[in-house]
Amino acid sequence: MRSREAGVPFDWGRSGGDGGPGSTRSVALFTVACVDYAIDAARVRHLFPAGREAGRSIAFDGATFPVIELRSIFRLPAGPRTGRVLLMDDGAGRTAALVVDAVGTPARLDQRALTALPPVFRGQERVHFEGLALLDDRVVVVIAPRGLLARAWPRQVAV
Predict the structure, then answer these.
(1) Is 68 exposed, middle or buried (0-12, 13-18, 19+ CB in 10 A)?
(2) Cis peptide before 66 (omega within 30 of 0)
(3) Cα 134 from Cα 55, distance rounded (Å)
(4) When comparing pLDDT for 2 and 149, which is higher?
(5) N or C: which end of the chain has fewer CB within 10 A?
(6) DSSP labels, 74-115
(7) CA dist., res. 7 & res. 10, Å (int)
(8) pTM of this structure
């Protein structure tokens, strides 16, 4: 097992349901600017402590992960460079190192808990986000990996 300083492999919960009604999938939870987000755990490759992303990309396991500042992509105020870096892929060949404030515990998301974005989300959010979900006692924004990376990669990587 690797130490926390070396990063944390993300290998739990990769066998989710088929996406049909009543199925569940594993998600990784994280926060950015006090907002809770979820991303399909099958898309998460590894976690690193913040600070290892000194350049514009991170090389890991034979792949290059461009660093993407989610605060910038989501038009949120700049924050401290603490937290975690979540290495992900979109299942279509694109990879990214997402800078997030904190990573939560793994969770199971029931597809029935996922709802469409309300009309107030009418811009790029419709590409970045799959929907909203009630998970335990809170609402989380569910990331659409392909949509997020198609719009953000590589033109909005951190500099």
Answers:
(1) buried
(2) no
(3) 36
(4) 149
(5) N
(6) TT-----S-SEEEEEE-SSS-EEEEEESEE---EEEEGGGEE
(7) 9
(8) 0.81
Cβ neighbours of residue 16 closer than 8 Å, sequence gap 6 or more: 23, 24, 25, 26, 40, 41, 42
In this predicted model, what pLDDT tens digit does every residue of 85-112 receive, in sequence order?
999 999 999 999 999 999 998 999 998 8
**Own/partner long-range contacts of 114-123 (Cβ < 8 Å, ≥24 apart):** 114/142
- Each as own residue / partner, the long-range contacts of residues 134-138 (CB below 8 Å, 24 or more positions apart, any chain) are 135/27, 135/29, 135/36, 135/38, 135/107, 135/109, 136/107, 138/36
- Residue 122 DSSP symbol: -
Euclidean distance between CA atoms 25 and 34, whole angstroms: 24
Domains in the chain (CATH in brackets) are 8-15+24-152 (2.40.50.180)
Instruction: Find out whether 99 and 55 touch, Cβ atoms under 8 Å.
Output: no
CA atoms within 13 A on the CB side of 58: 26
In angstroms, rounded to a whole number, what is the distance separating the alpha carbons of residues 153 and 7? 23
Contact 61, 45 (CB under 8 A): yes
The 3 state secondary structure assigned to 17-51 is CCCCCCCEEEEEEEEECCEEEEEEHHHEEEEEECC
